[in-house]
Structure formats: structure tokens, C-alpha cells
Request: fold
Amino acid sequence: MKNIIVLTGAGMSAESGLKTFRDADGLWEGHDVMEVASPQGWYQDQELVLEFYNQRRKQLLQVKPNKAHKLIAQLESKYRVQIITQNVDDLHERAGSTRVLHLHGELFKVRSTSNESLVYRWTEDLNTGDLCKTGSQLRPHIVWFGEAVPLLDDAIEKTKTADILIIIGTSMQVYPAASLIHYIPENTPIYFIDPKPNISSSSFNNLTVISKKAGEGVEKLMEYLIHNS
Reply:
């Protein structure tokens, strides 16, 4: 069974009505990202950060996986599929995907501010005074700007096993996630799905660019995979 590695970003969840990252103007849901997605922002205004993620959590509860999520999940019937996502939503899992690595954390999890290994599932509001079992304040389980990406090494090792690489809804401009494409074995087929692709077929060997949004693009991808299987 061939290994498919799927790298996904904000464009994957856009068709579900979810904004998972900052807009073109640099704002995330109207906020400067450094106010709500950095350790500095947390120390300056903890209440603002908690309320911001409480709203994101509520929004996530109201949306559903889209066609692209569901089609990627169906690939598991014929391939061993590993998703590596920059998204903090759980839409891949809700669509049925069983192997999902979240590089930037998960919205439905929180962790201790004193012990990063104390992680809890959390779907309600998180407030000041909500503590871990050792008595420290809980914070969103999100990798903020300026923080290390703890699962990066794991993602690199998984990417090295790719027989096929699929990239959906990410510009591959945000590091360190963007570096993963350089770890695939030589001559691995790459499928890049994005309505405004910023790479061309001459950028990499065996690159197929599908200039469509996630849902239509993954449908087209299925045709390529069937033809080339």
C-alpha cells in the first residue's frame, strides 16, 4: 500500500466557512495576530486571548467538514494516508481521517502553562481560573508566533516516507511547514491544489498543479490518482 502524505493549510477549511488564519491585511478575525497568537499577547492581555479562542472554538462547533475533507478521508481505502496540517480545526478527523498531525496545535485542546505535557481536550469556554491538575492556568494548545513547533521532527520523518505528496490550500510560504516539501524522496509525484498557485510545474520534478479550490481540486486529484495507479 502506497504512502500518501497530505499537507493542508487554511484553504482546506475555507469551504467549510472557517477562517483558520490571518487575512491578506494581516488580521485574524479583526485582531493583529501578535495580540492573540504570541506569548507577548498572552502576557499583555490574557483575557483578550482567552476570549478570542473561545470565539474560535464556538465557530468550529458550528461548521462541518467539506467535500475536500471527505474525499481525502476516502483515500484511506486504497492508500496509507498521513495528513500534516497547519490548521487547528478538527475537520479532517470529523471527516474520517485517522492519521492527522497538527503542526500548529489544536483548538479543541488546552494545556498547562507550567507543563506542556499536561494537555486536555476542551470544547467549552476557557477562562481565567481554569487550572491544570498541578494548579497552573490553562492556555490554548496552539503554537504561537515565536514558539517552537514540537511536532516538526515527527512531520519530517513522516514526509520522508512519501510515495505521493499532496498539498492543499497552503501557499507553502510559512516556515517551518514550508520546508517539508524538501524532505520527500527524489522523484516523488507532487500534486499542488490551490486556486492561485504560487509554484509552477517547472519548480519540482513530477509536479502537477491543480488551479482549483480544495473541493474541486481534490475531485480532479482523484482522476489523476486513478489514471496513474
Remarks:
- Residues 27 and 33 are 6 Å apart (CA to CA).
- The chain has eight helices and eleven strands.
- The chain has a mean pLDDT of 91.
- The longest strand covers residues 105-112.
